Structures are given as structure tokens and as C-alpha cells.
């Protein structure tokens, strides 16, 4: 395996009303190509800031991010980022939002439409193709954003709590869908969550962050795939990993 993303010594300081706020301090991470890394941390520990920096959307105060050895100085076409905030185009309906990345890469109209229909089905939005973002619930907008991300067939996916706002059933469905899509694809995923179970269900590796993005734990997850949430809950390895993550989150808050 080779390192695809390399983050070194990232510090981000924001200035708010003439006061400096440090969101992340000396954060480092290496992500192997083709791996699924989940980043677990409590609210406010700097997870979104870390992804913003890794995606090139935000410039670090100190430190570097490189992608396949090249410095990341702005957004790149190989990296698709599903942010926490809504980035759907309000003037396009669901289908045309999802078709957008394919439009940009020159996919024919017929092919675009077919693929968009398929993605709409996968994320459970059938029947809402002609709805505009303002006519959707928050969870539906998240799903439309996810479908749009997948439509671009990115090499690397950075995902910031994509399923946080969804009900339990939808969440499980989309977790499985994402795993199905990822497995064997060679794609690299960095997935941020504050949910231990989700981190363990999805990741090859879980990185637990504490305050200011301090890496409290970095652990390979050797649970066989496909993983089934119901079966996992009674698996002794899962139970012990869960306990270890709980402790790491507690330690990270200190
Ligand atoms: N643009 C900004 N200006 C000022 N402070 C910011 C800004 N963005 C983030 N912060 C601060 O940086 C810290 C980390 O925020 P960040 O959003 O990265 O955390 P998080 O771990 O993603 O939280 P959550 O899980 O709640 O989304 C917080 O204290 C936040 O208030």
C-alpha cells in the first residue's frame, strides 16, 4: 500500500473579533491508498477543520497537506468533499444537481440521466427527482449531496458526518451502500463521525481525535467484511474495541 494523503504538522488558527482561536494544533495523518479511515472525535475537536484543510478548501496556518506527493494548495478534481453544510444548487432540482459532476466531465445526456436515476434509487430519493433543495428535508438534502458526490466517481472521498442527520434505518442502508460502493473500488475514504459504532462498522482504521485534533488512538480494525451491525454488537472483538474507543474519547476530552 502507498501513502495517498500525507498531513504534517497542521495548525489552524482563526481570528474572531480580534481574538485568536486555535482549532487544530500540530495535526498529522497518513492515509493509505484504497483504505477507509474513520476519524472519530467529539464535537468541536477539530474534525471538520482537518477535512477542510485536507480538501484544500482552507489554508493552514502552519503545516502541509500532500496528495500523491504533491502539495495541496486548493481543491483538486480527484478529491470530492461532502461537507457538513449544504452545497446543493438551489436553482437545480435533485436530478440536475446529481447530474452536475457528469455534465462537467462531458458525459452524454442519456448516460447522465440513467446514472442519476440509479443513484437516486440507491440513496432512496425516488419520487423526488423534480424537487428543488428547498422542498426537501435536511436528511434528503444530505442524500442528494451524497448521490451528487458519487456521480463524480471521485478517487478520494472526504466525508464529514454524512449520515448524522438521518434516521436509524436510512443510516444503516446508506452505510451499507457506501461500503458496497467502496469495496474493491480502490477508492480512498476519510470519514468523520462522532459515533463509535459507525466508525467501527465502516473503517479499516479508526483515528480518535481529542481536543485540538490531538491523535489519542490510531488503530487498525481487523473485523472481517462484510460487517453486519447486529452481529457486530455481540462480537467480543467489537465489544472490546468499542470499550477502547469510549476510553480514548474520554481521554481526548482531558
Ligand atoms: N471559521 C471559524 N472561525 C472561528 N472558529 C472556528 C471556525 N471554524 C471552526 N472554529 C472553531 O474551531 C474548533 C473546531 O471546530 P470544528 O468544526 O473543526 O470541530 P468538529 O470536531 O468538526 O465539531 P463537530 O463535530 O461539532 O462538527 C471549534 O472550537 C470551533 O468553534
From TrEMBL:
SUPFAM superfamilies in alphabetical order: P-loop containing nucleoside triphosphate hydrolases
Keyword Cell cycle: no
An example molecular function term from Gene Ontology annotations: ATP binding
InterPro entries cross-referenced by the UniProt entry: AAA+_ATPase (IPR003593), ABC_transporter-like_ATP-bd (IPR003439), ABC_transporter-like_CS (IPR017871), ABC_transporter_ATP-bind (IPR050166), P-loop_NTPase (IPR027417)
Domain ABC transporter: 5-236
Keywords in alphabetical order: ATP-binding, Nucleotide-binding, Transport
Lineage top rank: taxon: Bacteria
PROSITE patterns: ABC_TRANSPORTER_1, ABC_TRANSPORTER_2
Classification via Pfam families: ABC_tran (PF00005)
PANTHER family recorded: ALIPHATIC SULFONATES IMPORT ATP-BINDING PROTEIN SSUB, TAURINE IMPORT ATP-BINDING PROTEIN-RELATED
Name this protein carries in UniProt: ABC transporter ATP-binding protein
Taxonomy of the source species: Bacteria, Bacillati, Actinomycetota, Actinomycetes, Streptosporangiales
Amino acid at each position: 500500500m502507498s501513502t495517498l494523503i500525507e498531513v504534517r504538522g497542521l495548525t489552524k488558527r482563526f481570528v474572531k473579533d480580534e481574538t485568536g482561536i486555535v482549532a487544530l494544533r500540530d495535526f498529522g495523518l497518513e492515509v493509505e491508498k484504497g483504505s477507509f479511515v474513520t476519524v472519530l472525535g467529539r464535537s468541536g475537536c477539530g474534525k471538520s477543520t482537518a477535512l477542510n484543510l485536507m480538501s484544500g478548501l482552507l489554508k493552514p496556518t502552519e503545516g502541509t497537506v500532500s496528495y500523491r506527493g504533491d502539495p495541496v494548495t486548493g481543491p483538486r478534481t480527484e478529491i470530492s468533499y461532502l461537507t457538513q453544510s449544504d452545497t446543493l444548487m438551489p436553482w437545480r432540482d435533485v436530478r440536475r444537481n446529481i447530474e452536475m459532476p457528469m455534465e462537467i466531465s462531458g458525459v452524454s445526456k442519456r448516460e447522465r440521466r440513467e446514472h442519476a436515476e440509479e443513484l437516486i434509487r440507491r440513496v432512496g430519493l425516488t419520487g423526488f427527482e423534480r424537487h428543488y433543495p428547498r422542498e426537501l428535508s435536511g436528511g434528503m438534502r444530505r442524500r442528494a449531496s451524497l448521490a451528487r458526490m458519487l456521480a463524480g466517481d471521485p478517487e478520494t472521498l472526504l466525508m464529514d458526518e454524512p449520515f448524522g442527520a438521518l434516521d436509524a434505518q436510512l443510516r444503516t442502508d446508506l452505510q451499507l451502500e457506501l461500503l458496497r460502493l467502496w469495496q474493491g473500488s480502490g477508492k480512498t475514504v476519510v470519514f468523520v463521525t462522532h459515533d463509535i459504532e459507525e466508525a467501527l462498522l465502516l473503517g479499516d482504521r479508526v483515528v480518535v481525535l481529542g481536543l485540538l485534533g490531538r491523535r489519542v488512538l490510531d488503530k487498525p480494525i481487523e473485523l472481517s467484511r462484510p460487517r453486519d451491525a447486529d452481529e457486530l454488537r455481540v462480537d467480543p472483538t467489537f465489544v472490546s474495541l468499542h470499550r477502547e474507543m469510549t476510553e480514548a474519547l474520554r481521554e481526548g476530552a482531558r
